[in-house]
Task: structure prediction
Amino acid sequence: MNKIRILIISHNAFSTTNNMGKTLSTLFYGFSKNEIAHLYFHSYDSDLDYCCTCFQITDFDVIKSIFLRKSCGRIVNALNIGNSPYEVNEIKNKIYKFGRDHSPLKLLVRDFIWKIGQWKTKTLFNWIESFSPTHIFFASGYSVFAYDIALLISKKYNIPLITYFCDDYFNENIKTHSPFYWIRKKIFRRKVNEVINKSTDLVFISDTMKKEYEKIFNKKGHVIMTPFSNFVVEEKEYKKPILLCYIGNVLLGRWEVLAKIAKAVNNINRYGNKIIFEIYSENATEKIIKELNYNGNIYFKGRLSSQEVKDKILESDILLHVESFKTTFIEKTKHSISTKIADCLASNRPLLVVGPKGIASVEYLRENNAAYIIDNENKIEEKLLEYFIEKDIDKTIVKNAKTLAMRNHDITRNSQKLRNIFENALKDD
Result:
C-alpha cells in the first residue's frame, strides 16, 4: 500500500487551545507527523508535534504583498518555530479583527484582497512539491479564498480532495436587505458547490449535517464526530454548594444565555450559597463581561490554559454547554455539535445543556439521555432547582454520557476512521 501524505488546508493551526486547532489535533491523533503537512492562514504558530512542516499565509501578509508587490507566506518548521514575524501591534490587531468580522461587506473585501494578493508563489509550490502530498484534507469555513486555494492545489497536482464540514454556513439564511449579504452568499454557495463536486469524500461533524448535505448535493459522506481529549477523569463525589462551570466560546449569542443563568443562580443563592457558577472564556468583550458578572457577583473568570481546563473539569460538579435561542444564531448552529461536548461526555461529570429544541447538539444529547437539558429559556431557574438542588445527581445520565463518548467520540477509533477514508481514496484514485 502506498504511504499516505496529507496536506491539511485550514484557517487555524494545530493547537491545544483553539477549538478548530484542537479538533485537528484529535482527528489526526493516530497519524505520524511525517504524514502531515499543514497550510494555514492564522497568525499564530502551529504545533509541530502533529506535522513535519507548515506553510503560513496571513491576512497581513496578503495586504502587504499588494502594496509592496512582493510574494508572501513562509515555511514554518523546527528551525523557525517560535520566531514568528507576527508580533501583535495595533495595525496587525486591527487586520486580525477585520478578518474575524463576518459582516458581508468585510467578507467580500477580504476575499477580494486574497484574490489579488501575491500568495501564488514559487516558494509555496516548491514546498508542496517537496512534501508530495497524496491527499488534501480541507477544513472548510466561511472564507471563499480558502476554497479557492484548496481547489487550485487539488487541480494543479491532481490530488484527491477530502472536505470536512463542522459548521453549516451553506444553509445560513439571515433576514436582511443588505445587497452585500446576498452577493456574498451567492458567491460562497457557488464555491461550496464547486468544492463538493471536486471532493472525493465529504466528512461531517454530525449526522444531521450529513443528512442535510446528502439531500442537497446528492453525494454520500461520512460522519466523524469530534473526539474527546486523551485524558482520564475520575468519578466525582458531589457536595453542596455545587460548582457549575462553563468553559468555552461566549460568541454566537451564548453570552446572553449565560447571563440568564447567572441571574437564575443569583436568585437561587438569595438564602444561602447553593450553586457556584464560573465562566471561562478568552473571547469576551468588556460589555459581555459586565453582563455576565450579574448583580456584582463575579462569574466570568477569563481564559484557561489546556492543562487548567483539565484541572477545572476535575474540580467541577456540573459542566455546562449553552446555545442561543435567537433565530439568527439557531440558523448558524442547528447542524453543528460544539467541539467541547466530547470532553464533557467523557468527563464523568453531569452535563447541563441550555439551548433550543431542534438543534443538533440538544437533540443528540436528548436522544441518548446523556445530559440534563433546559430547552426553555424562561424555565432556567426552575429547572436548576429541580435538577440539582431538590434532587441528587442522576448517575444514569453520567453513565450514558460516558458510554456515548466511547461509542462516538473515541480518539483512537475516530482517527482510524479518518485514516480509512484516506486509504480508500488512494485505492479509488
Q: What stands out?
A: The chain has two domains: 6-225+410-428, 242-408. The mean pLDDT is 88. The CA atoms of residues 62 and 117 lie 5 Å apart.
